[in-house]
Model the fold of this input.
Amino acid sequence: MAEQQHFTGIHRQSDGRVPELVARLDDERSVALDGYRVEDGERVFRDTKGNHSFWYDSKNWSAERIALKDRTEIQGTVDQVRRQVTAIDRLGGGRLEYIVTDERFARLLDDAVDRANIDWDVDVDIFYRPMERRRSPW
Done:
């Protein structure tokens, strides 16, 4: 949530949640986006992903366990990107920006989106943007 606030400028509500743009797809599943703006006449939707490296720093995992975690996280995020692109297209089009605060995860995600071999009607840009690193409470 800190990433959402930092990169969208949107503040938490009194209940602690950060507001998101939520759209419902034909299959009744909802898809959320962290932000929206118009830039030079183009609609730009934004989603943020936080620091995934704490999984590796805080646990004594084997290389196999790290690879399995990477595949699981990346596949889930690529599935989310697919739903978001579908929603953006149905909302009239635009561009999707992913801001990722973990450099390693940003590279993995960018590669996975490129390999997904989807006929994207919506441009998807993935950016690495570091934030001050905080230690996980776990």
About this structure: The beta strands are 21-24, 30-33, 35-39, 42-49, 95-100, 123-128. Residues 63-90 form the longest helix (28 residues). The chain has a mean pLDDT of 79.
